[in-house]
Amino acid sequence: MSRPLTVIIPTFNEADNIRAAIASVNWADEIIVVDSYSTDQTVEIAQELGAKVLQRPYLGPADQKNWAIPKASHEWVLLLDADERIRLTLRQEIQELLASEAEIPYDAFQIKRRNFFMGKKIRFSGWRGDRVIRLIRRDVCRYNDKQVHEEIMTEGIRLAALEHKMNHFTFKDLDHFLDKMRRYATWSAQDHAKRTKRVSWYHLWIKPVFRFFKHFFFQLGILDGKVGFIISVIMAWGVFLRYVKLQELRSKEDQSGF
Predict the structure, then answer these.
(1) What are the chain's domains?
(2) pLDDT of the residue at 216
């Protein structure tokens, strides 16, 4: 018995990535691209490669995926970002799992990621041991409502991990990394609004400095060399920017009288 698989790929202007992403999962029974009205050739490329394309406005990563999951035709769903690639060893592991005669005693599986940045494989810098829940049962699993680093909710779910890794080409270049950190800072400010009563020097100074030390020293970014230093600085800047954005949000609320 071979259980069919649906792959879901959220996109917005991913013409540079979508062909390789789909190629890495072209063995799946169904591929759904959930597009946020791309203005490049993402949709045309996806359709050319046989993917089903659904379009809707983008409200956040968790919202987009939770909307898409019930659209899958099959019980087992693999969620893939456009900058990720399923390697041959992982493909074989997934296919063997779904072809098993025995009942699969789990609802979701974590997948490890090999991260690449600026043409280099990142071994440390806080990205070591990176894993995400991506292979799920359609009718059981949903994401939490976080805007940044959304995750499958695991309460009451039977969770396991796959052995092999997928590749994750995190950022096209430095500008892409900085742009993404700016967007994440805005979303992260929303996530932290309820838990942060007042933005202080602790948030604007101590937390960013600690984040740098965490990535570069505690998580051994120093062993990734100059690229590890760059990652650590930008991650610290992202924390600083989060609280600047939150301060700005609070100021606008005060001015509006809410």
Answers:
(1) 5-169 (3.90.550.10), 174-256 (no CATH)
(2) 95
